[in-house]
């Protein structure tokens, strides 16, 4: 593990030392239940939860009453999609999303379709971009929700969330934004951007795993989302279950420490410049606005799984789901019109503020050598070289 170069930060990040240190006392010194308000230890734990809520609200520029803690983005997505569908059927059953959303969204919506939901899956172009005029056209008086992520976890493509929220606002339709990959890389001011519902997850921003926050805007007509988990009435009955105090404290601390520097983007660009000099290598969504830490690179005529196996010193990802031992091509890349072969030849590199110049330099050397070696022994590469395949 010591020498592993970790470039899988869109999957999860290392917890920062200062975040971890804020959490430790709530495991071993103050381990009280934050709902036990009859003793001082419980009241202190409760105060720590409320401090974290203030930290999240300040980072997003929203009210503390609009922040709810839960186990992470998957739970938020399930809560919102199922909760909105359940409560807004008198308005309609129509939900709009995009083909490149995270599986947590797509799978939940497929389940809702079985119950009668009508879902529009917007197409994207080869960069992952949606046509905003199509979004506007699809919103009807029966549309109960638009669900579009802020940034794509595989390619890093950033949707124009200001424009999307403005369209939804104008058309009087709720907008739910999965900002799991966006928060931690950029500031988002919810007083300026009229997103109605937003989710984030601590483990993507150097916080602990298994904790997230859901923002639900307070409006003159309250947004109706039913609780997914019933029980002891925590979070005003919206999300039952004993407060995970150390994790909540860690989330609050991680939200305070979001850095603002261009160093990650510079390293990402150095990596891209070096690797795209290899023949038949290209970068997905390079020409559009992307997360500064992410690059999705296609090494044509090579299986990404083979390339990763050749580089055990590197922690990378193909971005695709591994189902029963066989790798499926990424649904994101397929939706962008990328061929199945190129999708299976794509590797995602996701950096973090902990990534060093030396690590990127070593990565370039290892990947360049591995591509050369694999292609030397590849009959497909030889066919390509002979002009027999494209
Ligand atoms: N949404 C996006 C865009 C993600 O990248 C992820 C994590 O991979 C999730 C949702 C799910 O997040 P969590 O691990 O907090 O459930």
Structure description:
There is one protein chain. By secondary structure, the chain is an alpha/beta fold. The longest helix is centred in the first third of the chain and has 21 residues, at 40-60. The strands form four sheets. The chain has a seven-stranded mixed β-sheet with strand order 2-8-7-6-5-3-4, with helices on both faces. It folds into two domains: 5-12 and 260-385, Aspartate Aminotransferase, domain 1 (Alpha-Beta Complex); 17-256, Type I PLP-dependent aspartate aminotransferase-like (Major domain) (Aspartate Aminotransferase, domain 2, 3-Layer(aba) Sandwich). The protein is 37% helix and 14% strand. Pyridoxal-5'-phosphate (PLP) binds at residues 72-74, 102, 104, 149, 153, 178, 180-181, 201, 212.
Summarize the entry for a quick read:
This protein is of the alpha/beta class and 390 residues long. The protein has helices at residues 17-23, 25-28, 40-60, 73-87, 103-114, 132-138, 161-170, 245-256, 263-275, 304-310, 331-335, 340-344, 357-376, 379-385, and strands at residues 5-6, 67-70, 94-98, 118-122, 143-147, 175-178, 197-201, 212-216, 281-283, 294-299, 314-315, 322-323, 326-327, 346-350.
Shape call: globular
Oligomeric state, counting identical vs distinct chains? single chain
Task: Indicate the structural class.
Answer: alpha/beta
Strand content: 5-15%
* Number of structural domains: 2
Q: Going across the major beta sheet, what is the strand order?
A: 2-8-7-6-5-3-4
Low-confidence stretches: none
Tell me roughly what share of residues is in helical segments: 25-40%
Mean pLDDT: 95
CATH-assigned homologous superfamily of the largest domain: Type I PLP-dependent aspartate aminotransferase-like (Major domain)
**From the alpha-carbon coordinates, what is the Rg to the nearest angstrom?**
22 Å
What is the overall number of helices? 14
Q: What's the helix-strand series?
A: EHHHEHEHEHEHEEEHHEEHEEEHHEHH
Please state the second-level CATH architecture of the largest domain: 3-Layer(aba) Sandwich
Q: What summary fits the major beta sheet?
A: 7 strands, mixed
In CATH terms, what is the fold-level topology of the largest domain? Aspartate Aminotransferase, domain 2
At the first level of CATH, what is the class of the largest domain? Alpha Beta
User: What is the tally of beta strands?
Assistant: 14
Bound molecules: pyridoxal-5'-phosphate
């Amino acid at each position: 593990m010591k020498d592993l170069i970790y470039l899988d930060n869109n999957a999860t990040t290392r917890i920062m030392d200062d975040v971890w240190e804020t959490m430790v006392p709530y495991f071993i010194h103050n381990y009280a239940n934050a709902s036990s308000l009859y003793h001082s230890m419980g009241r202190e734990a409760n105060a720590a939860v409320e401090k974290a809520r203030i930290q999240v609200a300040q980072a997003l520029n929203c009210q503390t009453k609009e922040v709810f803690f839960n186990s992470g983005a998957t739970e938020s997505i399930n809560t919102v999609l199922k909760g909105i569908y359940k409560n807004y059927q008198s308005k309609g059953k129509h939900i709009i999303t995009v083909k490149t959303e995270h599986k947590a969204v797509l799978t939940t919506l497929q389940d809702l379709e079985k119950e009668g939901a009508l879902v529009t899956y917007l197409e994207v172009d080869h960069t992952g971009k949606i046509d905003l005029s199509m979004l506007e056209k699809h919103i009807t008086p029966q549309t109960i929700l638009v669900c579009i992520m802020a940034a794509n976890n595989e390619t890093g493509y950033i949707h124009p969330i200001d424009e999307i929220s403005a369209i939804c606002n104008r058309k009087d339709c709720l907008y739910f934004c999965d900002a799991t990959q966006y928060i931690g890389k950029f500031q988002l001011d919810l007083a300026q951007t009229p997103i109605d519902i937003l989710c984030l997850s601590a483990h993507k921003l150097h916080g602990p795993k298994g904790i997230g926050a859901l923002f639900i805007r307070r409006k003159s007509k309250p947004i109706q989302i039913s609780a997914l988990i019933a029980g002891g009435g925590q979070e005003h009955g919206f999300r039952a279950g004993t407060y995970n105090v150390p994790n909540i404290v860690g989330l609050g601390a991680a939200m305070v420490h979001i850095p603002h520097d261009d160093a990650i983007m510079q390293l990402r660009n150095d990596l891209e410049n070096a690797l795209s000099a290899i023949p038949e290598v290209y970068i997905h969504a390079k020409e559009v606005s992307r997360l500064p830490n992410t690059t999705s690179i296609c090494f044509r005529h090579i299986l990404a799984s083979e390339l990763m196996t050749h580089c055990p010193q590197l922690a990378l990802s193909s971005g695709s789901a591994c189902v029963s031992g066989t790798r499926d091509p990424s649904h994101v890349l397929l939706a962008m019109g990328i061929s199945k072969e190129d999708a299976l030849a794509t590797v995602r590199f996701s950096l973090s503020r902990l990534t060093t110049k030396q690590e990127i330099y070593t990565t370039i050397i290892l990947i360049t050598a591995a591509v050369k070696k694999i292609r030397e022994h590849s009959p497909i590469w030889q066919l390509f070289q002979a002009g027999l395949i494209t």
